[in-house]
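WARN retry 2 of 3 for item q-0093 after timeout on previous attempt; input resubmitted unchanged.
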Amino acid sequence: MRQGLIACLTFLMLAACSSGGRVIPEDQIYAPALDPGGEAVDGLIVGHRLMEAGQYELALEAFTRAAATHGLTGEVLTSLGTANLGLGRLNQSETLLRQAVGEEPDWAEAWNNLGVVLMERGETAEASEVFRRAYALDNGESDAIRDNLRLALAKMETASYGEPRQEDYKLVRRGSGSYLIRSID
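OK item q-0093 returned
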């Protein structure tokens, strides 16, 4: 028993003499250093990647940073509106997308995304007209816009008071990407 007590006290005394933890060499770096001369990634690119990942809140922050860099261009307004739509903020989304089509009235993607918001709000007649405009501006090249127009027209033709159906509306962005928003009608 006495030997165990002496061994324990010796161990505690040796532990008290130690600096504790690992010894870190001075030249070893654990976190990447900040490069003040480095270039930041464009907020629009970051935001679009976050949108594809379904991270709408983070995408909204990235698009807000992009607005500080680019100004409130049609693309930035559309991106902000689309992120708000993903978060379910339909009023803010509609306001931003209406501003976007005011800035760039010939941009089919902005019109399409506005149509998606209108469909979400139950304004099917106006949404179908907005989708028609987007389809005409796009010369019928986008499958997503064509599908959204078909869904809106079908919903207008078969207005029923039965069970709600789940429809898929596609948001599009400038470039090659598109986003899918599910709506319960």
